Amino acid sequence: MTTTTGRCHCGAVHWTFEGEIPDGTTCNCTICRRYGVIWAYGHVGGEIAVTAAEGALASYSWGGKTISFNFCKRCGNVVSWQGIDPEPDGRTRIAVNLRLAEPEAVAHVPLQRFNGLHDWTDLPRDGRTVGDIWF
Ligand SMILES: [Zn+2]
Fold it and tell me: pTM of the predicted model, to two decimals?
């Protein structure tokens, strides 16, 4: 099985994604556009695991506080977002930032644009992959 890994710049925080990454999402919402991240979605204890040195992560949430954005305290890299409460099925959603992977490891992943600012919908796929927007 394919395993993709990402690490923050200083190396204090790592993530792994087990299996094929179905897509990488860019979002225009008020926070994602500022972070400039590319998200790969999954569930805690499922395909995604985040490993952090003790006290390495800081988190930010606001408004309804349904998810937290988690970043390395030392180097400031955005690592993940995570549901604060589980879903009705008991699983907790998480997404990791594909920007923390090596470029060639995720270049083939299809891009999914998400209109999180206006109507909370996926835009139609346009054939681009993560590699097309890496620079
Ligand atoms: Zn770091």
Answer: 0.94
Rounded CA gap, 118 and 135, in Å?
Answer: 26
Neighbours of ion ligand 1 (CB under 5 A): 8, 10, 12, 72, 74-75
Give the helix/strand (H/E) hosting 107.
Answer: none
pLDDT tens figures, 68-77: 999 999 999 9
**Phi, psi torsion values for 100, nearest 5 degrees:** -90, -5
Ligand 1 center to 74 CA (angstroms): 5
How far the first Cα of the chain sits from its last, in Å, is 28
Tell me, in angstroms, the distance from the centre of ligand 1 to residue 78's CA.
9
CA of 89 to the centre of ligand 1 (A): 32
In the chain the domains, ranked by start, together with CATH numbers, are: 3-133 (2.170.150.70)
